[in-house]
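User: Let's play a game. I give you a shape written as tokens, and you guess the letters that built it. Ready? Here's round one.
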């Protein structure tokens, strides 16, 4: 009876550790023993390489120009950089609102129109929102 119990314990240990030992196919290659798979890319999101896409920047400038009653050419880009937002709030959480709890690649853009400065936070997917004066929520810079 003791041998049967020991054999069952060993078999259970082998079966529960099998996923960590097995090879897993990840992307274009395979990794083995204890290797972590690469994090999934968000479907439809272009990689963030430091440059704010011109189309996104033009869309944000046009919105601010319309709001401020100036031409888009009069909206000056003060800074634009790639960032990793800590969650789906894009650095501008609204009280009582729930957001995706995952790193969101995106951009922090500061514009000037009519002598005033405005901040916009955007995701790599193209969504954006105005977010003025929240320096304490400045995200980590992306590489």
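Assistant: Ready! My guess for every position:
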């Amino acid at each position: 009876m003791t041998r049967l119990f020991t054999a069952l314990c060993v078999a259970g240990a082998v079966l529960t550790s099998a996923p960590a030992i097995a090879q897993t196919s990840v992307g274009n290659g395979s990794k083995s023993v204890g290797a972590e798979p690469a994090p999934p890319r968000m479907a439809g999101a272009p990689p963030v390489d430091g440059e704010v896409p011109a189309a996104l920047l033009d869309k944000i400038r046009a919105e601010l120009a319309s709001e401020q009653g100036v031409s888009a050419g009069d909206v000056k880009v003060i800074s634009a950089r790639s960032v990793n937002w800590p969650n789906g709030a894009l650095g501008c959480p609204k009280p009582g609102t729930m957001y995706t709890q995952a790193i969101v690649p995106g951009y922090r853009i500061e514009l000037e129109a009519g002598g005033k400065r405005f901040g916009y936070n955007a995701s790599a997917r193209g969504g954006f929102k105005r977010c003025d004066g929240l320096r304490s929520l400045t995200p980590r810079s992306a590489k």
